Amino acid sequence: MLTEQQPGLSVEDAFEFACRLRADPMGMNDPSEPIEPSDAPGPIKVYEGGARLPLAGAGPWWLRSRSEESADPMAQLGALLFTSVGCSRVRWQAGGTVLSSPQHPELVWPMSQLSVRRPVPSGGAMYPTEVYVAAPLSIPAGPTVYHYDPARHELTNLVQPRAATSLRSALGLADEAPLSPFALVLAHRFGKNLHKYKNFAYRLGAVDVGVVLGRFVSCGNERFHDVRIQVDFNDAILNDMCRIDGLDESAYAVILLGEPQAVTPVDDPCRTPPLPRPLARGIPPRPSSLFAAMHTAACRIPSQQRRDSKLVEPETLDEDLSAEADLTYLPPAREDLDVDNRALLCRTSNGSWFTGETLEPDVIATVLRRTHEAITRLNIASRDRGLPVVRLYCTVDRIAQIDPGWYRYFPGRHALALVGEGRAVAPAAELQAALYAATVDVERSAFSLHVATVVDFRADPRGARAYRVQQLLVGAAIEAATRWSAAMGIGSHPLHGFDARRVDGQYGLIDDAFGVQAQVSIGKARWSGALEGSVIA
Known about the structure:
Layout: H1 11-23, E1 46-48, E2 52-54, H2 73-85, E3 89-92, E4 114-117, E5 129-135, E6 144-149, E7 154-157, H3 163-171, E8 182-189, H4 191-197, H5 200-224, E9 227-230, H6 235-241, E10 249-257, E11 277-279, H7 289-299, H8 314-317, E12 327-329, H9 342-345, E13 353-354, H10 361-381, E14 390-396, E15 405-410, E16 415-418, H11 427-434, E17 447-454, H12 465-487, E18 491-495, H13 500-507, E19 514-523, E20 525-526, E21 531-534
Antiparallel strand pairs: 1-11, 2-7, 3-4, 3-21, 5-6, 5-8, 6-7, 8-10, 9-10, 12-16, 13-20, 14-15, 14-17, 15-16, 17-19, 18-19
């Protein structure tokens, strides 16, 4: 555990740190610090004592249709939490979990055959995102802040009667400003990834938080209608509100659910519940000084809180489309998919042992269109604060009626354009060779989606924080791509451990402002041999 704040990196040094993470994620770790499975914290953050608020939904309630669900806000909140971050599955793998390390790809975690899974994908199934629920209005326990326990599906009261004041102060709102009924604070718990990924955990954790952010915004719109997000806030105030230290765990994003309302002050609560105490297993792994310095730099309040809107409209993304571009127009995205089906939401992943089968073009059309819409939805939810621009690229290998090649997706035209090497280099074999550890048979996938952002964030008013925000958007794109693939019965596997510059070169991005940040390989998948069961209650 860190005991004091590390001095933050300069923007220049933060940029160098980010570039090294993209170039060789695990290579920047100190080889004298071995990966130690025994240092892993418990899979669930648990509090001892305190008051608990059980959330509705036992038994078959989870599988009911949306029309049967209660309109009660607490029931809607419970459903949203469970189908986003609740413990929804248990998986048993006879051979254990493969160690995701380029240095030791053949090793497995001891005693790792049985694992608890969540609805969203997570790097190494670590799930480093913690969710805190600020309820500034008068719900059962009065205005306070809760921690969501994903294993027990209940809220633990953290005893914060000044939740409204803290929330306004952290978000830069006026003293009497109305507030949404719920504010979800997404925090990155560093120790969940550190024992396995070391410095790479900084980037991977931000992506994981982005995955959860994307799921909450996508599913929350239907339940609460008015959904807004903020990634610019006073980190220290939010961390204090959630009773986390900002050194081992820190707030990364805020989601405001529901129409803002006037807050009725509660001067003297009738009863003050006992304060819970977090339980820790063993000694939490300690971030390196470099990791901690990057985190401190990203915690700085942006120099320009309110920024010009950069809503990712299709026309904006198509501005640089050449008039001579040879476009491959895609069929319409499928409209017959119930992507919010409860059973699907509780089990997004559909496997990554690809079969090499050819897919119909409506699959790639749907994944690309819906992923772009997910990013646009986040921009809309951010209101006038603006988010980094994201571009989508893809390699095609086994899609009927589309020639294999390296493409950029232009959402305004809903079309693909050959870029870079075009058809000169076989994509599947090149992507397989670009992996630092061949733990996924990318070569047998049908296509791979690549999420690209502006690599150099040094001129961004957010400074080092811009990198953190970029990775949140990358995570949201991954969530959309995997969920819509699963809705069509197609397997998918997100990847970060690849030679990004090599992939950039194939897309013609070496001298471009944009660079590839993540990959999702997609294709028909077969059973991996793991036994899996759903958790209903």
